[in-house]
Design a protein that fits this description.
Bound molecules: 2-(butylsulfanyl)adenosine
Helix content: 25-40%
Distance between the termini: 69 Å
Shape: globular
Number of helices: 25
Oligomer: single chain
Number of strands: 24
Structural class: alpha+beta
Radius of gyration: 30 Å
């Protein structure tokens, strides 16, 4: 090595250490020493050295934060320790109940809690191996998330290398967010550049983290705060959660200074009130505070409920309220013809978004709250919840025409509006003759829990119906790329994507297909019951409803007498589907127009029938799911089980046939073991299914 390169190596090492130190002072200690210009100067000098001496470049160099290539899509990361959610409390009494549950489980005296802000951002998991940042992922469904390593590397608050003494495997959990001031500045830049502004810091942070091109993420002012751990190998854990947070801070991780150790319910309430009064002055948005039992040993003992720990709770701040004026009360026509009054509001910023509309539900609700157009009203919105009009703040000036009257004709198709006795909703009687109902029927058909056709949203459906390209769901499967590409806002590429997602929706399970039809009253659960009972669409269409009603009645009579004799009831046929739903099914399925659409749909989508052969193997069997499965979302497992004619129940009893377990411990498993219920894991389950599908 010559003298020049040796000097360069030393200088590069010095600059790297300095840059990391300044990052740490800036992001973790909030106590910067160098100015931005000094920092940038050092970074440029280091870049120059590394380009003259490429062998000196290291993966954890601050120059290597921004990768070059945009991704085509994010990969998946299976979390080695699941990322859980938190139980919520919305009132003092709910917090008191949480505290009592902990005391009752055998904690004497005041319980010590670690108290922290509830950051309003996005949860991520950061994995360090031998001190080096190797992978970062979003929470996803808790079991697996998206691999956003490239984007997280650009976040300067996240050290690429931990300070000395990090365990060999160290997973840090925390929240990515944006400071309010930096968010405002970002929006200012977006405005100047003629680009779209973000609604609030949370959305801006989420949008920035989910960029396929890390160079875009790199110019977004993202921050990070750590609040916990995932997998840790190669070190003992401290005794308390507050010590974990201190440890994280020592290793160079930003940990919010807004944390405290508090004693008992009183201490917790004091912390909550103090944060609530100071929240507007914090640099970032928080939507509550989190309390965690401080002792890690106690946390272990307390364990988990479903997907949340028993030892922690998020106490949310009250929903934000603001005053605004109702400019008009319009009517929206829903899928089954329900006429819903909607308040058009003078735009008002509340709970982190600008609200311009709020549903008023129905006529009675408007009367009860005595809402008139022109009234100044109180609007409330919390977190992801839809906005609501709480009541009148100041009435009027009220002219007679400002009072809401339900129209007697549908505003869209002019058919008569009917309101049945005992029903809150007024309905358009136009059925599928009404354009609004047709549009809603298409949207429902394509929705996530129905046929799940990604990209088929309101704007496209409006155009498809208005341009007479699709009248019923059956027409969706006849669409061609050329036709779709002509719609506003779409090009060839998006048109092809839409066709791809339409094609991907063929062959969905029968239960989804039935739900997608939008038969009045038939929700997801009822659709599953129908799919289990009829196995195929043909037999559903051939159903003799009066015979079924008779059968149900005699079934009920038999059960009533069994009950009198103290015997166990036999399973009901079509459980949960009462006379009203049966009448609705009969009416819907008898209409020639509907049958035609269903036949056409069956032809093009070929719903996956409930496998008849399994009726003898798994039909009627009961599964209980517990823990997080390594490769499968809970909903997915549930759907599979149900497609095999079995059902999923939430608690283990002697009637449970199988417990499908993701973890090796937990209350449900203990009960299952005690009762001798068969326990299988995901691979056992897949094997079982494979055998059934293979016919063995
Ligand atoms: S702890 C084991 N602490 O809240 C519990 N979560 O509803 C795991 N969050 O997805 C979470 N601030 O994104 C924890 N101080 C904090 C938090 C926090 C915000 C978010 C987190 C999580 C969600 C849970």
């Amino acid at each position: 090595m010559n003298a020049a390169s040796d000097q360069a190596r030393k200088r590069a090492a010095f600059l790297r250490a300095e840059l990391e130190r300044h990052n740490y002072r800036y992001y973790a200690l909030d106590d910067p020493e160098a100015s931005d210009a000094e920092y940038d100067g050092m970074l440029r000098e280091l870049e120059k050295i590394e380009s003259s001496y490429p062998h000196l470049r290291t993966a954890d160099s601050p120059t290597q934060r921004v990768g070059e290539k945009p991704l085509r899509q994010f990969g998946t990361v299976v979390h080695s320790v699941p990322m859980l959610s938190l139980l919520n409390a919305f009132s003092e009494s709910e917090l008191a109940a949480f505290n009592r549950r902990i005391s009752d489980s055998g904690c004497a005296g005041n319980i010590e809690y670690s108290a922290e802000p509830k950051f309003d951002g996005l949860a991520v998991s950061l994995r360090y191996e031998n001190g080096e940042f190797v992978r970062g992922a979003t929470r996803g469904d808790g079991a697996s998330g998206e691999d956003v390593t490239g984007n997280l590397r650009t976040v300067r608050a996240i050290p690429l290398r931990l300070r000395n003494g990090a365990p060999s495997i160290f997973e840090i959990r925390g929240e990515v967010l944006m400071f309010r001031a930096e968010f405002e500045a970002l929006n200012e830049r977006q405005r100047v550049n003629g680009e779209k502004e973000f609604v609030n810091p949370r959305n801006a942070a989420a949008g920035s983290l989910r960029q396929l091109d890390p160079r875009v993420t790199a110019v977004r002012p993202l921050r990070f705060f750590a609040y916990g751990l995932g997998e840790v190998v190669g070190s003992e854990l401290p005794e308390s959660h507050s010590a974990v947070l201190d440890w994280l801070a020592e290793l160079g991780m930003p940990v919010s200074v807004e944390r405290a150790v508090v004693q008992g319910l009183d201490g917790a309430l004091r912390f909550y009130r103090s944060m609530d009064s100071r929240r507007a002055r914090l640099a970032f948005d928080i939507d509550g505070v989190v309390f965690k039992v401080n002792s890690l040993a106690r946390q272990q003992e307390l364990g988990f409920v479903a997907r949340a720990p028993r030892f922690a709770i998020a106490y949310k701040f009250a929903a934000e309220e603001a005053n605004t004026i109702i400019t008009a009360i319009d009517i929206q026509v829903g899928r089954t013809g329900t006429l819903t009054p909607v308040a058009r509001l003078e735009p008002v910023f509340v709970g982190g978004v600008t609200v311009t509309n709020a549903t008023l539900h129905n006529e009675d609700e408007i009367r009860r709250k005595d809402l008139w157009a022109g009234d100044t009203v109180i609007v409330r919105r919390a977190g992801d919840v839809i906005p609501e009009v709480v009541g009148v703040a100041k009435a009027g000036p009220r002219k007679p025409a400002d009072q809401f009257v339900m129209p007697s004709e549908c505003p869209i198709c002019k058919s008569a509006v009917i309101r049945l006795d005992g029903e809150a909703a007024a309905r358009c009687s136009g059925g599928l003759f009404c354009v609004a109902q047709r549009k809603q029927a298409l949207l429902h058909f394509a929705s996530r829990r129905a046929m799940d056709i990604e990209g088929l949203g309101e704007k496209i459906v409006d155009q498809l119906v208005d341009r007479k390209l699709a009248d019923s769901p059956a027409d969706i499967y006849q669409l061609r790329v050329k036709e779709i590409a002509l719609l506003d806002r779409l090009g060839d590429k998006s048109a092809q994507n839409l066709i791809d997602s339409i094609n991907a929706s063929r062959g969905r399970p029968l239960s989804r297909f039935i739900f997608a039809l939008g038969i009045p009253g038939i929700g997801e659960e009822a659709a599953k019951v129908l799919a289990r009972h009829f196995h195929s669409l043909d037999s559903l269409l051939l159903a003799d409803w009066s015979a079924i009603a008779e059968e149900k009645k005699s079934n009920q009579r038999a059960n009533a007498s069994r009950k009198r004799r103290g015997e166990i009831a036999a399973p009901q046929i079509l459980e949960g589907i009462g006379p009203e739903l049966m009448a609705s099914l009969e009416k819907f399925l008898a209409l020639a127009q509907n049958r035609e659409i269903i036949h056409a749909l069956a032809e093009s989508t070929k719903p996956e029938e409930v496998i008849a052969g399994t009726a003898t193997v798994l039909a009627g069997k009961t599964f209980v799911l517990t823990g997080t499965l390594p490769n499968m979302a809970r909903d997915q497992a549930k759907e599979m089980i149900e497609s095999l004619g079995a059902r999923v129940s939430s608690s283990v009893s002697s009637k449970t046939d199988f417990v499908l377990a993701g973890d090796l411990s937990g209350g449900k498993l203990e009960t299952a073991r005690a009762l001798g219920v068969r326990i299988i894991d995901e691979s056992g389950f897949m094997e079982l299914i494979g055998k059934i599908r293979g016919g063995t």
